[in-house]
Amino acid sequence: MSRVNFTQIWSPNEEVTRLQTHIRTTLNPLLELPISDGLLQTDLSIETSDTVIDHKLGRQYEGFIITRLKSNSVIFESSSTNDTPDRTIILKASATATADIYFF
């Protein structure tokens, strides 16, 4: 998924232009947040050993949020060296778990 941008459309109507300017001023700071450019992956199986996940962002990840956890477990980033952070993330779990994870 690529980052969404607000595109202002030219209008001869001054009110429309002013409204678009206010919308752009409000939305752009939100759209620039790293979390607004993410991808949700569902039913990922995370093991207690290093589990390499292709985050599919097409760039280096900035973080992740567990959106659904289907067992009692803690999922965390492994301390192992990740040679391909632009494509993958290495995760571990305190107990084997299935989770939905939002990568950004």
Alpha-carbon Rg, integer:
19 Å
Strand content: 25-35%
Identify the strand order in the major beta sheet: 1-6-3
Low-confidence stretches: none
Q: Can you give the mean pLDDT?
A: 93
Account of the protein in words:
The chain has one helix spanning 14-31; strands at residues 39-46, 51-54, 64-69, 75-77, 88-93, 97-103. The N and C termini lie close together (10 Å). It is α+β, with helices and mostly antiparallel strands. The model has no long low-confidence stretch (mean pLDDT 93). The strands form 2 sheets. The protein has a 3-stranded antiparallel β-sheet with strand order 1-6-3, with no helix packed on it. It has a 3-stranded antiparallel β-sheet with strand order 2-5-4, with no helix packed on it. It is elongated. Helices cover 17% and strands 33% of the residues. The chain contains 1 helix and 6 strands; from the N terminus they run H-E-E-E-E-E-E. The protein folds into 2 domains: 1-32, no CATH class; 38-103, no CATH class.
Question: Could you give a short description of this structure?
Answer:
The protein has one helix and six strands; from the N terminus they run αββββββ. With 104 residues, it is α+β, with helices and mostly antiparallel strands. It has a three-stranded antiparallel sheet with strand order 1-6-3, with no helix packed on it. Strands 2-5-4 form a three-stranded antiparallel sheet, with no helix packed on it.
Write the layout of secondary structure elements.
Elements: H1 14-31, E1 39-46, E2 51-54, E3 64-69, E4 75-77, E5 88-93, E6 97-103
